[in-house]
Amino acid sequence: MNVYTNGNLITQPIPKLLRAIAVPASIGFFFNTMYNIVDSWVAGQISGEALAALSVTFPVFFIIIALAIGIGTGVTALIANELGAGNEEDAKKYATQTISFGLITSVIITIAGYFSAPAMFKFLGASDSYLDITLLYMQPIFLGSIFIAMVIILNGILNAVGDTKSYRNVLIAGLFLNLLLSPALALGWFGLPALGTLGIAIATIVSNLFGLIYIVYKVWQTGLIDQACLKCYLSPIKKIYLDIISQGLPASLNMMTVAIGAFIITYFVSQYGKEAVAGYGTAIRIEQIVLIPSIGINIAVLTLIGQNNGAKKFERIKEIAKVGVKYILALSTLGTIILLLGGKPLMRFFTEVPDIITFGTDYLAIAAFITWAYGLIFVTEAILRGFKKPIFPLVLGVVRQTIVPLIAFYFVTFVFMFSIIGLWWSIFTIVWVSALLSLWYTFRKIP
Length: 447
Known about the structure:
Blueprint lengths: L13 H33 L1 H37 L3 H36 L4 H16 L1 H16 L4 H23 L9 H25 L8 H5 L3 H33 L3 H37 L3 H37 L3 H14 L3 H16 L4 H25 L4 H26 L2
């Protein structure tokens, strides 16, 4: 009996399973966040303009991540439900078709992103040398996006079987590789030419290439890729593609609303100057650190809800939801304390520019009290996706990330002309209202 059919995820105690899946995932995402922090530190050593360039690329880079995570999340839900129901052959078909679907998506991202990048960054306020430095980083990233996207998409297969350790290993190894490559290529260590932001991009592409090789090996080991008929499954099967789209597209679009929301926030923040953009961009990387445990719980809840929903074990589903919320709130409390006490020292780690430090610290002081709300949104969305009901998270994401912010930020910035603190409190209000609404809706839908 293979690891993915042994029934552990639908029989063993819920708290034990949540910890077993969430802890490796959280550790992995911690190292991934450290990876991004290394890049921010390296950019800060190049210049304040380079740090601002990496900050302004965040919403664009996140488009790649959003599409990949969305597809991976949809694949996790589909495969987990089939495995829980005992439909191993269908699970294999979904897993194998994920490869070709992911490759097609990656090519589209590369072409669309590379050629649209100049216009996107001009919209976000980049011009002259600022624009050149930004494109020097982001256009190579788009060329290597196939490696970045496929690692995340294929990890969706591993998540479906409860394997979060393999991706953790990729992220840990990626950090240490990046610790060497990013400063060496960008700053010219070891006698190498200093490539600036281009060096940071090359380091990212190389580390993801090695990660992809390892993930492909681990996916192959699960036995979910039907090796006897690989060619027939790699050729697109309409029904399976439509199923992946029906689950993955709403999740991708929901993640895309995060990217669009980052576009919107960055645009309004840019009205306060590029130091504000650098401060905010650096601060949200710090904020990501305290949200990492919530992401781990999200993955664990999605996997467990999916498999137990397939097995029709609804009492276990209720317990998964309750324990997930309890864990989220406890971990978020710790995150709040970290942001309140460590915001300013962490900002100083990246830069000595006083204005950048001030903008970032002011944001983190308010963001500290949003961590519970983000956690609730993460866990409730995971519950609904485990049920293969991704539409409400999408609708909520559109409203939370685009419609309401556009209206609120416009009035804060251009009508009432508040200081940037007004933007931070607007974010606080929008996220908390969304979290409470999502919590109310989700628990009404649990059987």
